[in-house]
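Recap quiz, item 2
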Amino acid sequence: MKKAALILVLLGSIIVVPVAKAQIKHIEMRVEGMT
Amino acid sequence: MKQHLGRQSGVQKVDVNLLDGKVDVTPKEDGHIDPIQLLKATYDSGVSTAELDVTARGKIMKDSSGSIAFQVEPNQSFTLEANELSKQLEPLAGTATTLTVRGQLYKKPAGKKKPELPRELKLLLLEVQKKE
């Protein structure tokens, strides 16, 4: 029983919840003088 | 120019369209990208930037001078240019609301062929894509 609980705790600790980070997602530039 | 931009910190991919002069920069998932460095790299490659638009996820805050700013990372924020959208979002300053916005960080001043680059970029909000 103790072993099962320990495994559950271990599993729970490695589940990574994807968090949408605050950051720059995309940059679009318009440039002039490009050959 | 593609190589210049690709070497910048936090840049994952650069797509250049020679026909319409459009450059798409995809940042790394966990990287810190500095738009001023991109402007400098473009300038150094002998090309001038007419416009730089950005899509970013972050929060509205008040900066040290009391101006409304958009914070994309703990150490990266852009003061907002006052417009209708920035006024609407002002009450969200300091709240946990996260926004995904599209805005303009740079536009070349009219009448100048190769203007000096700005030291600080202000974000002109164009669109709020998501509010969480």
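Chain B has two domains: 1-47, 57-132.
The longest strand of chain B covers residues 48-62.
End of item.
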